[in-house]
Specification:
The complex is a heterodimer of chains A (569) and B (177). With 569 residues, chain A is of the alpha/beta class. In chain A, the strands form four sheets. Chain A has a six-stranded parallel sheet with strand order 3-2-4-5-7-6, sandwiched between helices. In chain A, strands 11-10-9-12-13-14 form a six-stranded parallel sheet, with helices on both faces. Chain B is an alpha+beta fold and 177 residues long. Classes of the chains: A alpha/beta (569), B alpha+beta (177). Bound molecules: thiamine diphosphate.
Chain lengths: 569, 177
C-alpha cells in the first residue's frame, strides 16, 4: 500500500478530521449537527465541494445510510453525530453493523476534555456505551491524535472481518491547532486481520470434498465481503456441489444459477434445510452458523463432516464444530482450493434438491407468487418487482414477513444487491439503508421493501430523500399488522394478538406531503401497472401494496426445532 | 455439560484506556463472573498483562478467549488450568498491636504461616502473606479470633510453565512492516 504523506500544515483538529476523511477517499458522510461537533460542521461547510454531507432526520438514519452505502459500494460508510443524545441515537445502527460485519466509521463530538466526567450538558459516556458493539473505539482528547487515530479507524473498519468503529472527539481537540500530517495505517501490531492460510488445511478440505458423495455448500456474506464471487462460482461449478445461502450471503451467486438451491434457515427453502441433515460433507463458506440458520444445534448436520472457511478465528467451533477449519480470507482459500478439487458430477444428488423444490413450489411458492385468492400477497408484489427490474435491482428490506418473502423470491443477477438487517433484525433499517444503498450504487435501481410497522420507525427519512432528491423506490407491504409477530402469536400463542394490530395513517398522503409521487394498490389488476410505473420513474416513488392481513410465511422451522423439522404449512 | 474448572486467562495487550471495559464487556455479555483480576506491565516494555481467573467449562473458556483475542488492542490471549501455571495471591492483614503483646499465641500463628510483618506501630501492625488461596485463608481464620481491623487479598498473579512467545509475535510484525 502506498503511503499518502501530505506535507505538514498548521490547522485545527476539526479541519484535520475533514482532511483525514478526504485522504481515506471519503466523499460522502451522513450526519446530524449539534453543539459538541460544531467545529467539524463548520469545516464541512468549507469543504462542501469535496465532501458531501447528507443531513438525515435522525442519527439512527445516519448509521443505516452509512451501512446501506457500505453494503452496495464495498467502501467504508461514515456517520457523524453530536455528543449525548446524538451519540446514543447511533447505537442501534452500530450494533447492527457489528453483528452484520459492515465497515463503518462513526465520529461523535464530545464535551471538552476538562469537562469530562462533570455531567456537562450533553455529556454521555459513548465510549462505554458503544464498547460492546464496536470493533474498536477511541476517545480523542488532543488534536495531535486525530490523523493517526482516524487512519487506524478506517484500517480497522475495513480490514479482516469488517465492522463499526467509533471515534469520539472532545471539543477542545476540534478547536486546537497542530501540525497536521497524514499517513495511512498499514498495520497494527496487536491486530492480525488476515490469517495466513494453512496449506495442510486446504489439502484436507480438498480431500474431503473430492471423496464426498453428497456434499453441500452453505455460503454467507464472507463471499461478498471478500469479493470472492468469481472464484466461488468457479468452485461451485467445477465441483458440481449444490449451494445454499444464508440471508446475508444472498446475491453472492445469481439466484437463477443452476447450483443455487436457495436459502437455509428459519424461513429458508425446504430442500436445503432438509438435506442439511442428509449431506455427508457440509462446506460452510464465510458464514457463522447463526441460530436462525441452524435451528437446534444438537440435531444440526450431525451426520456430516464440516469444512469451515472463515476469516474470524473466533467463529471456528463457536456454534458448530469444524472437522476441517480453513482460516483465512475466503477469496484466497477458495483460490487455493480450486486447483485441488476434482471436477465432479453430483447431478443425482442435486436432483434431490430439485424434487424438494417441486414440493415446496406446489405447497407454498406457487400460492405466494401466483395467488388465486382475492387478497394480494407479498409474494406477488416481489414477483412484479422482479419482472420490471429484470432482477437487476438492489433490494433493501426491513425486518419481518416482508423481509423473508422478499429474500425468498427476489431475483438477483449481480452481487452486493441484497441489503437487509440480518443479525440484529433492526426494524426501521430499510428506508435509511436504501438511501445509502442508492448513493453507494447510483447507477442501480434501488427498491426498499418495508412492512407498515418498520416503515414508521424511520419514516422521517422521507425528508432526507426529498431534500437530496434521491430516486429511491419505496414499497410498503401493508398488512396493518406487525405481521411476523402476529404470525408467531397465531402459531404459538393461540392467536392472542397482543399489540400487533396497527391503525395506520394515509401513507400516500404522507409521501405526497414530502412531494414524493405515491400510489396505493388494493386490487390485483392494478399491481403490475403500478410497479411498472414505479420502476420506470427516475424520481423517488412510493408504492403501498395493501396485502392480506393474516397471511403467514412458510416454510418455517419453529424456534428450537431441527432443520429437518421444517414445516410447509 | 462439561465440568467447570478454574482457568487463568492471560492477556497481553496495548495500554488502551478502554480495553479493560472491552474485556469485562465480553464476560458480562456471557454472564460470566470474574473470580479474580489483576493487571500490570509484562516482561515486554509497553506491553500490558491482564490475569483473570474464571470458573468455566473448557469449551466456554476457549470461546471467551477467542473473543478476547479478537479485540484489536489484544496482542495475544491464553487460558491455562491451575496445573499449567505457577500462581500466587498476596494478602494483607491489619491487626491491633495490643493483640501481639497480650496474646502470646498470635506470635506462633505468624511464625508458622511464614508471613512477614510489614509494619508495626503502637496502634496496629500489618502482616503480609503471599501464597495459595488456602494458605491466605488459613491465616485469615487463624487471625480472626484476635480481631482483624482490615483484610485485603490481591487478584491472582501467575506465570505459565510454557512459553508465551509474545516477543516473537511482535518481531514478526516489525519485520513484515
Ligand atoms: C426495533 C425492533 N423492534 C421490534 C422487533 C420485533 N419484530 C420483529 S418482526 C416485527 C413485526 C414487523 O412488522 P412490519 O414492519 O409491519 O412487517 P411485517 O412482518 O408485517 O412484514 C417485530 C415487531 C424488531 N425486530 N425490531
Amino acid at each position: 500500500m502506498a503511503t499518502t504523506k501530505a506535507k505538514s500544515m498548521h490547522i485545527s483538529g476539526a479541519e484535520a478530521v475533514i482532511r483525514c476523511l478526504l485522504a481515506e477517499g471519503v466523499d460522502l458522510v451522513y450526519g446530524y449537527p449539534g453543539g459538541a461537533i460544531m467545529p467539524i460542521y463548520d469545516e464541512l461547510y468549507k469543504f462542501q465541494k469535496e465532501l458531501n454531507h447528507v443531513l438525515t432526520r435522525h442519527e439512527q438514519g445516519a448509521t443505516h445510510m452509512a451501512q446501506g452505502y457500505a453494503r452496495t459500494s464495498g467502501k467504508v460508510g461514515v456517520a457523524m453525530a453530536t455528543s449525548g443524545p446524538g451519540a446514543t441515537n447511533l447505537v442501534t445502527g452500530i450494533a447492527d453493523a457489528q453483528i452484520d460485519s459492515t465497515p463503518m466509521v462513526c465520529i461523535t463530538g464530545q464535551v471538552a476534555y476538562h469537562l469530562l466526567g462533570s455531567d456537562a450538558f450533553q455529556e454521555t459516556d459513548i465510549i462505554g456505551i458503544s464498547t460492546p458493539v464496536t470493533k474498536w473505539n477511541y476517545q480523542i482528547t488532543r488534536a495531535e491524535e486525530i490523523p493517526e487515530i482516524l487512519a487506524k479507524a478506517f484500517y480497522i473498519a475495513r480490514s479482516g472481518r469488517p465492522g463499526p468503529v467509533l471515534i469520539d472527539i472532545t471539543k477542545n481537540a476540534q478547536f486546537d491547532t497542530f501540525d497536521y500530517q497524514y499517513e495511512t495505517c498499514k498495520g497494527i501490531r496487536s491486530y492480525a486481520p488476515r490469517p495466513v492460510i494453512e496449506k495442510s488445511a486446504v489439502a484436507a478440505a480438498a480431500e474431503l470434498i473430492n471423496q464426498a458423495k453428497k456434499p453441500m455448500i452453505v455460503w454467507g456474506q464472507g463471499v461478498i465481503l471478500g469479493n470472492a464471487e468469481t472464484v466461488f462460482q468457479a468452485f461451485v461449478e467445477k465441483t458440481d456441489i449444490p449451494a445454499a445461502w444464508t440471508i446475508l450471503g444472498l446475491s453472492g451467486l445469481p439466484t437463477d444459477h443452476p447450483h443455487n438451491v436457495g436459502m437455509v434457515g428459519m424461513h429458508g427453502n425446504y430442500g436445503p434445510n432438509l438435506l442439511t441433515n442428509e449431506c455427508d460433507v457440509l462446506i460452510a463458506i464465510g458464514m457463522r452458523f447463526d441460530d436462525r440458520v441452524t435451528g437446534n444445534l444438537d440435531t444440526y448436520a450431525t451426520q456430516a463432516k464440516v469444512i469451515h472457511l472463515e476469516i474470524d478465528p473466533a467463529e471456528i467451533d463457536k456454534n458448530v464444530k469444524a472437522d476441517v477449519a480453513v482460516l483465512g480470507d475466503c477469496k484466497e482459500s477458495l483460490t487455493q482450493l480450486l486447483p485441488l478439487v476434482t471436477a465432479n458430477d453430483h447431478s443425482s444428488w442435486r436432483a434431490q434438491f430439485d424434487d424438494h423444490y417441486q414440493t415446496e413450489f406446489e405447497k407454498v411458492i406457487n400460492k405466494d407468487i401466483n395467488p388465486t385468492k382475492a387478497g394480494l400477497t407479498m409474494g406477488e408484489a416481489i414477483a412484479a418487482i422482479n419482472k420490471h427490474s429484470k432482477g437487476d435491482a438492489v433490494i433493501v428490506t426491513d425486518v419481518g414477513q416482508h423481509q423473508m418473502v422478499a429474500c425468498r423470491y427476489a431475483k438477483f443477477t449481480q452481487s452486493k444487491s441484497n441489503v437487509t438487517s440480518g443479525g440484529l433484525g433492526t426494524m426501521g433499517f430499510a428506508l435509511p439503508a436504501a438511501i445509502g444503498a442508492k448513493m453507494g450504487a447510483p447507477e442501480r435501481e434501488v427498491v426498499a421493501v418495508i412492512g407498515d410497522g418498520g416503515y414508521q420507525m424511520t419514516i422521517q427519512e422521507l425528508g432526507t430523500i426529498f431534500q437530496a432528491q434521491l430516486p429511491v423506490k419505496i414499497v410498503v407491504l401493508n398488512n396493518d399488522f406487525l405481521g411476523m409477530v402476529r404470525q408467531w402469536q397465531q402459531l404459538f400463542f393461540d392467536k392472542r394478538y397482543a399489540s400487533t394490530e396497527m391503525i395506520n395513517p394515509d401513507f400516500v398522503a404522507i409521501a405526497k406531503a414530502y412531494h414524493i409521487e405515491a400510489v396505493s394498490v388494493k386490487d390485483r389488476a392494478d399491481l403490475d401497472g403500478a410497479v411498472a410505473k414505479m420502476i420506470a420513474s427516475d424520481k423517488p416513488f412510493f408504492l403501498e401494496v395493501c396485502v392480506e392481513k393474516e397471511d403467514n410465511v412458510f416454510p418455517m422451522i419453529p424456534t428450537g426445532a431441527s432443520v429437518s423439522d421444517i414445516r410447509l404449512e | 455439560m462439561e465440568e467447570k474448572k478454574h482457568f487463568t486467562i492471560s492477556i497481553y495487550s496495548e495500554n488502551n484506556v478502554g480495553l479493560l471495559n472491552r474485556i469485562s464487556a465480553i464476560l458480562l455479555k456471557r454472564h460470566i463472573n470474574i473470580e479474580s483480576f489483576s493487571t500490570s506491565v509484562s516482561e515486554i516494555p509497553d506491553v500490558y498483562r491482564f490475569v483473570i481467573v474464571v470458573h468455566l467449562s473448557q469449551e466456554k473458556v476457549k470461546k471467551v478467549v477467542g473473543q478476547i483475542e479478537k479485540q484489536v488492542d489484544v496482542i495475544k490471549a491464553f487460558y491455562h488450568t491451575d496445573e499449567e501455571t505457577i500462581f500466587q495471591e498476596s494478602a494483607l492483614y491489619k491487626v491491633k498491636s495490643s493483640a501481639l503483646f497480650e496474646e502470646r499465641h498470635i506470635q506462633n500463628v505468624i511464625k508458622e504461616s511464614h508471613a512477614n510483618i510489614v509494619t508495626v506501630s503502637p496502634e496496629y501492625f500489618v502482616i503480609e502473606k503471599t501464597g495459595f488461596r488456602h494458605e491466605t485463608e488459613k491465616l485469615y481464620n487463624d487471625l480472626a479470633p484476635y480481631g482483624l481491623l482490615q483484610f485485603v487479598r490481591s487478584g491472582r498473579i501467575s506465570v505459565t510453565k510454557s512459553k508465551m512467545g509474545i516477543s516473537e509475535i511482535l518481531n514478526t510484525f516489525k519485520n513484515n512492516q
